[in-house]
Amino acid sequence: MKRLTAILLTLSFGYPIMAKNDGSGKDQKDIPIPEWQIGLVVTDIVIPSLTLDASIEVAPRNHIGIRLASPQYQSFSDYDLYQRSNWAFKGGIYHKIFMPLDEYDMFTFRHGVRFGISELEFEATVWDPYQNNGNTYLEYRDVSYSDQPISLGYEIMAGWQNNFKSLYFEIYFGLSYEFINNASDLKAIEYKGEDFSLDYFGPGYEYNSSIRPVMGLVIGLTDPY
Prior knowledge:
By secondary structure, the protein is mainly β. The protein has a single domain, classed as Porin, CATH 2.40.160. It contains two helices and ten strands; from the N terminus they run H-E-E-E-E-E-E-E-E-E-H-E. An eight-stranded antiparallel barrel has the order 1-2-3-5-6-8-9-10. A hairpin with a 4-residue loop joins strand 5 and strand 6. The longest helix is centred in the first third of the chain and has 19 residues. The two termini are 34 Å apart. It comes from Croceimicrobium hydrocarbonivorans. This is DUF3575 domain-containing protein.
């Protein structure tokens, strides 16, 4: 959080000074900006997830971008809520602003909407109805259910980027808010209650509407401007 605060303060107070001159006698307005970039968010490998991050210039120093990800969740313990691999699809559309320091280094600021849908299976022990000779009976047994949490949110981030001809490296930090649109339809909360862990890196994370930290480390290809 201290690092994020420092970046935001630098962007707020330092950029007007740096915008006039980059220290080499070249005006900031003369520093070129890449027309497009496409990369992989390598930090998502830990979750794990394969995340594509791409943007294209729509105005001077302004890009519109899209981020697509497909996290895979795996439960390793018989006592966990989830008993198999589960999938999710995450996405986002963002506006990105470049603030050049010199020809290769620049601050970045991005904000936009994020969305997602997950398919999460779990087991629960419940009174399960069944039919026999026209009558309905209840049996206390283990059953399998699945949930599809749908989320929508907003994020804001600040970062630093370094370009190496056709390659670029970017690291960013920020905050996001995600709201679970269909929380009232999810079965896990009804059948499991609080009897499962809402792990930040696990499927339980899909059940939370909250403010969350965001960090990204992106490596990819860029327009060789």
